[in-house]
């Protein structure tokens, strides 16, 4: 058995800071308050409902994850954040239309206490969004200083021992890595010079890391997926994670594609289209923001179904992704997939998927788990990219010399083995005892 890691206790309040307090963020906040009030269950949350097998199958040890590792409790969470709209969490949740009003009314008093701070916002990076609750943005460096002040003030006012920041905001326009992202020095210089390669999400991330606050990226934005941010996180001893929450259609791909590969079935084409009517759908109606999301969604199949290893099966896949803004649908997204596969002797077959999902309902438990697991990692002395949390992301961040793992089942095995390692338990390899005798 391994030696357990020395993990600092989860004492005191844990502050959860969210840039972007729209549908996803308010669904998280309302959900936690509903669970605490006994009017809802944390369905979809691994930290709250998942178990973990320890030892051999015959040992019969499968505790809840929250009983196995020292996670922060829901009663210790304090929520805050920034948004371009001044609505408190109750008003924002009503506007988002994800949860029913009668349920929100039961926790109205709690939600009304969560009011967003003025946001760092530049319409050049999110062209379909406009709001009044924004910082003056005299310069990008001034914005960094303001966000750092916001972080300190929130921590002091709420008596928080620790903080985690998780991006729940909009998808920014597509940005390729730039040379100013290569070092901490060049990044800071670019911020001070108002360089166009520094979007608002990077301002939040840089400010968080300088305040030794872990940062998680729930959108496909570049943000912390650059050498300078990774270097800064390691320098500060802070955890990073990202990017882009794995919710609807991509979740289905990471469930189904590994099964097709496991059975050595070929794929000729995979066509995916979505209709979505919430604020995220409106933002993605802009071609430049859509490109950022498209890159995130297209990468998945390339790694799960590698053409270089299986040229006969996956060497010529036609993969197309579309997102259509359709206001009547609201947060109730619908994703259609047509998959052209082939089997024995090349005989063609098809799979059709019609996934009617609720985007924020799928995202909310991911946010909760990511916050709690990242806080655990931080208290365990871990820093830099937390690849073991790839389970939650469409485009998992990795070290530069590694390719991302997209297979959901491999990701889950890595996550649980990391928890076993932290607690000094044997890792599960699924080799039977007969191989050891």
Question: What would a concise description of this structure say?
Answer:
With 437 residues, the chain is an alpha/beta fold.
What report would you give on this structure?
- The chain has 437 residues and is an alpha/beta fold.
- The protein folds into two domains: 296 residues, NAD(P)-binding Rossmann-like Domain (Rossmann fold, 3-Layer(aba) Sandwich), CATH 3.40.50.720; 108 residues, Dihydrodipicolinate Reductase, domain 2, CATH 3.30.360.
- The chain has 16 helices and eleven strands.
- It has a seven-stranded parallel β-sheet, with helices on both faces. Strands 8-7-9-10 form a four-stranded mixed β-sheet.
- Helix 7 crosses helix 9, helix 8 crosses helix 10 and helix 11 runs parallel beside helix 13.
- The longest helix is centred in the C-terminal third of the chain and has 21 residues.
Count of extended strands? 11
Going by helix content, strand content and strand pairing, the class is alpha/beta
Number of domains: 2
Report Rg: 22 Å
Principal-axis shape: globular
- The mean pLDDT is 94
CATH architecture of the largest domain: 3-Layer(aba) Sandwich
The amount of helix comes to: 25-40%
- The level 1 CATH classification of the largest domain is Alpha Beta
Question: What does the main sheet amount to?
Answer: 7 strands, parallel
Roughly how many Å apart are the termini? 17 Å
Number of helices: 16
Share of β-strand residues: 15-25%
Poorly predicted segments: none
